[in-house]
């Protein structure tokens, strides 16, 4: 298969149309068999549930080329499982994890010419999503849905080197204690847009959201979970029912324990104790880990000892080990690497 003529290492995180996408429709209580199509547009009624009441959930994962030239994805079963849970919470029909994995594999295979080569740092981003497609005007779940998967090649996250982030403690909240923070729903992102635009306009890269109930505990940012490292090298990650369960964070915790022999704690993290940590990072599919150099709490600056020039030593080890596993340079735990071709 011949690769497309793309300047892989200069791609950003933007949408580029690829050749094929997967579509399956839900009607009369059942999903159809699904198909690969070439049309990149969606035609739905003006009153579709997704347009009126934001009934939509999504996932994000990557396909990439390993050192030995295979095209693979990383733990798509967990994305499938998470999408099942997201759908249930928004009263949408479940598109099974098994079919989800098949749809992801088929879509990547069809767009193999867009999977960046090993060493470019670029990847093929995969976006599965689902939305209510029939007219809904009284507030209730839609009766018909569409599940789609498209792909788009994206560039290396740390183009021009790693730059630790400066984040602020946000006065806006991301997720209510018994709300929808733990599912991957578009609505969580819509309501975060004002906070992130405001943060950027004030010179911050991201928002650190606190628990809205007490505003004393660290939750996460708009799209990534926190990992902290204590001065004696214990990896600490916040525990809360309103945090989105990041697959990257869960994988990094496993790597910390089983590959690096580090102690791991998943527990409530007080804003008050953040100043005592040695390292801080944000975990998600896009970057694996982005180091945080500085946290600003209403004018009070916390500069992490790892500083503003590089990743802290433990963060770096976690990053190197997980990306080593993903790229096939290190042996992966059973079931983590899904080979596509
Ligand atoms: C997607 C997402 C993450 C990261 O999850 P990964 O599975 O690691 O990509 C973290 N926080 C939020 C709010 C998210 O939507």
TrEMBL record:
Catalyzed reactions per annotation: L-valine + 2-oxoglutarate = 3-methyl-2-oxobutanoate + L-glutamate; L-isoleucine + 2-oxoglutarate = (S)-3-methyl-2-oxopentanoate + L-glutamate; L-leucine + 2-oxoglutarate = 4-methyl-2-oxopentanoate + L-glutamate
Key word DNA-binding present: no
InterPro entries: Aminotrans_IV (IPR001544), Aminotransferase-like (IPR036038), B_amino_transII (IPR005786), BCAT-like_C (IPR043132), BCAT-like_N (IPR043131), BCAT_family (IPR033939)
GO BP annotation list: isoleucine biosynthetic process; L-leucine biosynthetic process; L-valine biosynthetic process
Cofactor: pyridoxal 5'-phosphate
Enzyme nomenclature, EC number: 2.6.1.42
Pfam families: Aminotran_4
Coiled coil stretches, renumbered: none
Entry's family note: Belongs to the class-IV pyridoxal-phosphate-dependent aminotransferase family.
Protein name listed in UniProt: branched-chain-amino-acid transaminase
Originating species: Blautia pseudococcoides
């Amino acid at each position: 298969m011949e690769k497309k003529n793309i300047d892989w290492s200069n791609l950003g995180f933007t949408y580029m149309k690829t050749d094929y996408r997967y579509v399956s429709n839900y009607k009369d209580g059942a999903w159809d068999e699904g198909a690969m199509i070439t049309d990149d547009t969606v035609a739905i009624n003006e009153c579709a549930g997704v347009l009126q009441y934001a009934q939509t959930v999504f996932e994000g994962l990557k396909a990439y080329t390993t050192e030995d030239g295979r095209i693979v994805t990383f733990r798509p079963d967990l994305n499938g499982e998470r999408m099942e849970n997201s759908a249930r919470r928004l009263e949408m029909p479940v598109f099974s994890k098994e079919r989800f994995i098949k749809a992801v594999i088929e879509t990547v295979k069809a767009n193999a010419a867009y999977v960046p080569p090993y060493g470019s740092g670029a990847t093929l981003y995969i976006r599965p999503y689902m939305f209510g497609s029939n007219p809904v005007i009284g507030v209730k779940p839609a009766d018909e849905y569409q599940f789609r998967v498209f792909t788009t090649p994206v560039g290396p996250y740390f183009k021009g080197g790693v730059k630790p982030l400066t984040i602020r403690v946000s006065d806006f909240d991301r997720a209510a204690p018994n709300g929808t923070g733990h599912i991957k729903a578009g609505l969580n992102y819509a309501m975060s847009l004002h906070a992130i635009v405001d943060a950027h306009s004030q010179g911050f890269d991201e928002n650190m959201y606190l628990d809205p109930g007490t505003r004393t505990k660290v939750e996460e940012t708009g799209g990534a979970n926190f990992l902290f490292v204590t001065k004696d090298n214990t990896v600490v990650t916040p525990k809360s029912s309103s945090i989105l369960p990041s697959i990257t964070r869960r994988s990094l915790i496993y790597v910390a324990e089983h590959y690096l022999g580090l102690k791991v704690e998943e527990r409530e993290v007080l804003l008050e104790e953040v100043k005592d940590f040695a390292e801080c990072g944000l975990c998600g599919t896009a970057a694996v880990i982005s180091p945080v150099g500085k946290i600003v709490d209403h004018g009070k600056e916390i500069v992490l000892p790892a500083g503003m020039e590089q990743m802290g030593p433990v963060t770096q080890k976690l990053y190197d080990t997980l990306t080593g596993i993903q790229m096939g340079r290190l042996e992966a735990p059973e079931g983590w690497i899904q080979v596509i071709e």
